[in-house]
């Protein structure tokens, strides 16, 4: 009897097939995407290629700052991690203020900061696109890692240098045009003097 029951149970298990694995919504199924696997949809980018206004050393220091506050080590700074960061920088924000900080640079609308979005804060600060009383402006200003402050100044100098270069190029072109006009005027005057001299010579010959 026991042998028959065991045989029936074994046959039933074979009929049912394998036990189901983790479903699409389970933590195990989603872990690969969180870790940034090819199927996770995370954007791959080159900081040095996209943020050329910053030096490699500045980008490395910015990355260290980012990792310092990425407590979950998932490649993002979420709202609670940003809250801790602003408190440690001496500029605590309200819950709404923190949400607005993230929203201003949250290009993929996932309500957290990727490293690329973190770098956008400093780019915007350098370009003067952040309000002085905003949380992001405080973050860029109060970050005490060398690059965070120097990076903003360096980026500002970079943009100022570009504007100056455009201005200088325009002024240079204007100077060239003025010189060409002056030479043209001098050539015309010389031509007129020669013509007058020839006319005067012909008068004396008569």
UniProtKB/TrEMBL annotation:
Residues 1-47 are annotated as: Disordered. It holds the Pfam family AIF-1. InterPro entries: AIF-1_EF_pair, EF-hand-dom_pair, EF_hand_dom, EFHD1/2. Keywords: Calcium, Coiled coil, Metal-binding, Repeat. The keyword Repeat applies. GO terms for molecular function: metal ion binding. Residues 162-200 form a coiled coil. CDD domains: EFh. The keyword Electron transport does not apply. Residues 57-92, 93-128 form the EF-hand domain. It comes from the Eukaryota. This is EF-hand domain-containing protein D2.
């Amino acid at each position: 009897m026991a042998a028959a029951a065991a045989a029936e149970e074994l046959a039933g298990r074979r009929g049912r097939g394998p036990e189901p694995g983790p479903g699409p919504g389970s933590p195990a199924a989603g872990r690969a995407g969180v870790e940034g696997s090819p199927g996770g949809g995370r954007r791959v980018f080159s900081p040095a290629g996209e943020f050329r206004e910053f030096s490699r050393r500045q980008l490395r220091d910015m990355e260290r700052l980012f990792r310092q506050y990425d407590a979950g080590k998932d490649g993002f700074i979420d709202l609670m991690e940003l809250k801790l960061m602003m408190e440690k920088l001496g500029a605590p924000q309200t819950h709404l203020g923190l949400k607005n900080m993230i929203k201003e640079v949250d290009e993929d609308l996932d309500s957290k900061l990727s490293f690329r979005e973190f770098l956008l804060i400093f780019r915007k600060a350098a370009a003067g696109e952040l309000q002085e009383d905003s949380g992001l402006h405080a973050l860029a200003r109060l970050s005490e890692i060398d690059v965070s402050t120097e990076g903003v100044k360096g980026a500002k100098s970079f943009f100022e240098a570009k504007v100056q270069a455009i201005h200088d190029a325009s002024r240079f072109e204007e100077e060239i045009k003025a010189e060409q006009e002056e030479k043209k005027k001098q050539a015309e005057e010389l031509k007129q003097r020669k013509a007058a001299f020839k006319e005067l010579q012909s008068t004396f010959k008569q």
